[in-house]
Amino acid sequence: MNLKRIGIIIAILGVLVLIAVLLHRAGNQPDRPQPLIVRTNQVPGEKPVVRVSRKERLASFTAEELESFKKRFDESLLPAFREWCAIYSKHLPFSPDDLKYDKFAGQVGRGNLQIYTFVLDGVTVSISDSTDKTTVMYLNAPGSKQMMELPTGAQPDISTPVNIADMVPLLKADAKVDFRPEQIRVTPSAFSGSMNGGAQVNVGGDPLNAASWKFTFVFQADGRLAYYLRGTQ
User: Fold this and answer.
1) Strand, helix or coil at 139?
2) 14 or 154: whose pLDDT is higher?
3) What's the rounded Cα separation, in Å, for the pair 158 and 82?
4) What DSSP designation does 91 have?
5) Does the N-terminal or the C-terminal CB of the chain have fewer CB atoms within 10 Å?
């Protein structure tokens, strides 16, 4: 297994916890269509078994599944991706035209919620697709690994490429809600790793509880996104 493949696997594993939370929420909302279930001598009061679908490569699709995937890609995934790219146009680590169906790297889902992962020139992007919303939920670029590396010992650059005022319209366009300035926390990336001149931005929730944050961003010094995570809304 080559290093690129290992990197893709690690990046996909990075979203599994959030995927599990989203799948759990989707499977427990009574106002949504019920997912496909398999009942085998079900005992009253027990939860039904829910079939979880998973694909790791295009070659694993049947011809019928591939046609269905291409249709969903054209009609749902690609438009949502382009809409998201328009919001963050000044911060993209790739071109909006880079997303093609053959960049597919994995899919997991349950019932009416499916999450598709693509790799665009080393950048992992996951798109959540459900009956009520399709949106980019995760981005991880190679530069994000600097957040896990110790500082080199040089004088840290604690400037940031974005500030709270920059984030307010981006979040309004993305989340379709208004976050108060005090809900947007911008921290120089140099405080916690080797990424000088960048910024980590945490939005909403309890500042001491990362699981409650509505959004997490890491911007590199040049303003491009190194990491994006859309939490449960």
Assistant:
1) strand
2) 154
3) 32
4) G
5) N
Residue in the block written with tokens 């291409």:
70
pTM of the model as a whole? 0.76
Q: How many CB atoms lie within 10 A of CB 114?
A: 22
- DSSP state for residue 232 in the 8-state scheme: -
Q: In whole angstroms, what is the distance from residue 103 CA to residue 106 CA?
A: 10
Measuring CA to CA, which residue among 92, 79, 73, 24 is closest to residue 228?
92
Q: CA geometry: angle at 175 spanning 172 and 178, to 5°?
A: 45
Helices (H), 97-196: 164-175
Per-residue pLDDT tens over the stretch 159-206 = 999 999 999 999 999 999 999 999 999 999 888 788 888 999 999 999
Tally of CA atoms within 13 A in the half-sphere of 9 that contains its CB: 6
User: pLDDT, tens digit, for every residue of 63-119?
Assistant: 999 999 999 999 999 999 999 999 999 999 999 999 999 999 999 988 888 999 999
Can you point out the beta strands (E) in the chain? 37-38, 49-50, 52-55, 104-110, 113-120, 123-129, 134-140, 184-188, 199-203, 215-219, 225-230
> Which residues pair with residue 119 across a beta bridge?
124
